[in-house]
Amino acid sequence: MHLSVIVPAYNEEKKLPITLREISDYLRKQNFESEIVVVSDGSKDKTVEVAKSLISEIKNSRVIEFKENRGKGFGVKEGMMGALGDFRLFTDADNSTPISQIEKMWPWFPASAKGYGGKGYDIVIGSRDLKGAILDPPQPPFRRFTGEIFKYLRKIVVGLWEIEDSQCGFKCFTKRAAEDIFPKCKINRFAFDPEILLVAKKSGYKIKEIPIYWKNDLQSRVKLKSMVKMLLDLFKIRLNEIKGYYD
To answer: Is residue 189 part of a domain?
Structure first.
């Protein structure tokens, strides 16, 4: 199995069919074996039913279901650990970044039997903040402001000064990196991304950040309560590092 695409989903019954069909249509045209793994994290709507109804239509797809909502980080972790691919990508259920953007990632990975890669990176992450990234449409000023504040605090508290966008939901890992990194992770909700990258860095994995296309949902909102929890999680990550949990 060359590629696993992990799609964490919470109450995504409306957006999921379009996303899964677009991913499937793209993967069917490739010359490698792949799978799609949907992880429903305690969805209260018909996310699970919708995903399962598409299994007969979409080749090599499966659903991992959890009754309790544990957070996006938990869903990604479980999907990564349950995946079979030599490369493991997680992407958002709203299809913010088209699956075709993975073509920008392949050259940065170690060389594979399929002829992909060659530059030797273990993890390649999409970025909305690097030069060359396209945000369609651009983020509203307040959203940009809060994002910059979080980025600054993340760099101060956790580090990772070389990473501009830790929160983009389009990240790909080699099998070896995924199976080493994710069992060490403790954060289950939206601050899980900095933890993943910190664990990867401490474990000696090479990370490449590249600009990507991002379809911006202007209806999307980050609640103040969620922002506070994310900031608290940054301090949890720092404390975990001090305690040696990531060694």
So the answer is: yes
> How many domains, in total, are found in the chain?
1
Signed CA dihedral, 233, 85, 216, 41: sign only: negative
Is 247 within the bounds of a domain? no
pLDDT at residue 2 tops 70: yes
Torsion-angle region of residue 220: left (phi > 0), alpha (psi -120 to 50) or beta? Answer: beta
Cβ–Cβ < 8 Å for 147, 135: no
CATH number for position 35: 3.90.550.10
Within a domain: residue 237?
A: yes
From the list 168, 169, 160, the residue with the least C-alpha distance to 207 is 160
Q: How confident is the model at residue 190 (pLDDT cuts 50, 70, 90)?
A: confident
Distance between CA atoms of residues 87 and 117, nearest Å: 11
Q: Which amino acid, one-letter code, is at 71?
A: G
Q: Are 154 and 160 in contact (CB under 8 A)?
A: yes
Distance CA 12, CA 106 (A): 28
What's the pLDDT at 44?
96
Lowest-pLDDT choice from 9-18, 45-54, 139-148, 230-239: 139-148
What's the pLDDT tens digit per position in 50-66? 999 998 889 899 999 99
Share of the chain above pLDDT 90, in %: 83
Residue 199 near residue 82, CB atoms below 8 Å: no
Domain assignment of residue 236, given as a range: 3-242
pLDDT at 121 over 80: yes
Is 18 inside any structural domain? yes
| DSSP state for residue 100 in the 8-state scheme | G
Amino acid symbol at 206: K
